Amino acid sequence: QVHVVESGGGLVQAGDSLRLSCAASGLTFSSYAMAWFRQAPGKEREFVAAITGRGVRSYYADFVKGRFTISRDNAKDTMYLQMNSLKPEDAAVYYCAAELNSSRNLRTPWRPDDYDYWGQGTQVTVSS
Question: What is the mean pLDDT of residues 85-99?
Answer without folding.
Answer: 98
